[in-house]
Design a protein that fits this description.
By secondary structure, the chain is of the alpha/beta class. The protein contains seven helices and 13 strands. The protein has one domain: Class I glutamine amidotransferase (GATase) domain (Rossmann fold), CATH 3.40.50. Helix 3 packs across helix 4. Involved in the breakdown of putrescine via hydrolysis of the gamma-glutamyl linkage of gamma-glutamyl-gamma-aminobutyrate.
Length: 257
């Protein structure tokens, strides 16, 4: 029996500042294969190459990954500024309508970091270009120096809503996470439920209210050591269960489950 397919939404890069490539972090594929129990399939996120309709047909679920480029502010009605950083308009053109289609169909997706922000924007929300510049906010960005282990180290707590879906899934009201992002939710989109916050008030865990499928998304990077981390593992296991249910034509994963 074949494994269900998870489309991993990749990013565009220039190798040696010259050679264009689509790529995704190895740890994303490892988390999908080893913890979710699904087949990872890297998606070249460019509407010239793929369509949302084709992706919905080929893949059973989607991992919306992190990445250095940010969602372009035009997607939420704001002007571009230097603080908004680099962009990947091709990924915007694939990921945002893909999120809306999955919400409508009940097809599962899991948003991570930029993917978390994409879900909010797809549902009509807005983003702060640089949350560390806001009064009372901490610097959530990846440390510029150090080993990979140091950059992905646990750095702050996330507190979930009492009795909420993340609380129930984790079996804990409060967890420790890494943090490697510069932007964050300014206004939540329609039906976006913020179910967890960092100590400085930054939204860290969301889902789409009344969606028939799995829509959990987190601002941190759970793909790091997903098989061993007690916070990451239940997220990828639950996502895998939702993808298998969709592939098998069974009842979509529900928040009340």
């Amino acid at each position: 029996m074949r494994r269900p397919v998870v489309g991993i939404i990749g990013n565009s890069y220039l190798i040696n500042d010259q050679y264009p490539a689509h790529a995704g972090g190895t740890m994303n594929s490892e988390a999908i294969a080893e913890v979710s129990g699904c087949l990872p399939l890297l998606v070249p996120s460019d509407p010239r190459l793929v369509s949302v309709a084709e992706l919905l047909e080929v893949c059973d679920g989607f991992l919306l990954t992190g990445g250095r480029p940010n969602v372009h502010p035009e997607e939420y009605g704001e002007a571009e500024t230097p603080a908004h950083g680099a962009f990947d308009r091709a990924r915007d053109a694939v990921a945002l309508p893909l999120v809306r289609a999955c919400v409508a169909r009940g097809q599962p997706f899991f948003g991570v970091c930029r993917g978390f922000q994409e879900v909010n924007v797809a549902m009509g929300g807005t983003l702060y270009p640089e949350i560390r510049d806001l009064p009372g906010r901490m610097n959530h960005r990846m440390p510029p120096d150090g080993t990979l282990e140091e950059k992905f180290a646990l750095r702050h707590k996330v507190r979930f809503c009492d009795g909420g879906v993340f609380h129930r899934l984790m079996g804990a009201r409060e967890v420790m996470t890494n943090t490697l992002h510069g932007q964050g939710i300014k206004t939540p989109g329609q039906r976006i439920v913020i179910d967890g916050h960092a100590p400085d008030g930054t939204p860290e865990a969301i889902y789409v209210a009344d969606a028939p499928g799995f829509t959990l998304s987190v601002q941190w990077h759970p793909e790091w050591q997903a098989g061993q981390d007690p916070v990451s593992r239940p997220l990828f296991e639950a996502f895998g269960a939702a993808v298998r249910a969709w592939a098998g034509g069974r009842q979509p994963w529900a928040l009340s489950a």
